[in-house]
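call fold(seq) -> tokens
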Amino acid sequence: MEKATINKSIKLSEHYSLGEFTKTSHKEVDNTPSHVAIENLKRLCLWLEELRFTYNALYCLKPGEDYDTSENVEPIVINSGYRSMALNRKVGGTPTSNHLTGCAVDIRCLGIEQALRYAVILMDYADETHQDFDELLIERSRAGNYWLHLAVRPKENRRKTMFIQA
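ret:
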């Protein structure tokens, strides 16, 4: 069967492209999202844009610096976004993972402090906008690497928060 191709440069929002959400080191696995999954990724991007703006405004910009022109603006780095069923199995994801529907993203964190700051910004955003997330999990690998797992579904969000150590 021929592997499907997608235009990875498609912009999902101002600062995020489809390629960031579908990248994988497992090149032999087809990781092409459906149109529904792409719409879910766009919804996630609204949260990521808010996180990027607020984190930079609070912690990176110097007084008087402009967000749009400053060199001190830090990106939000995506470790994992959409996963096809085959890729999810390959990486050991759970069979009910929100990554399968494009509703989840894992965000690289430089340590526990940054993970906590990211989580607080996203919880405040949920409260201010009266929107819910499904999962907001701070995760830590055995090697000591941190990431923040954010899941936002179209409906039936559970607002689950947790710290997980692998």
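The longest strand covers residues 104-109.
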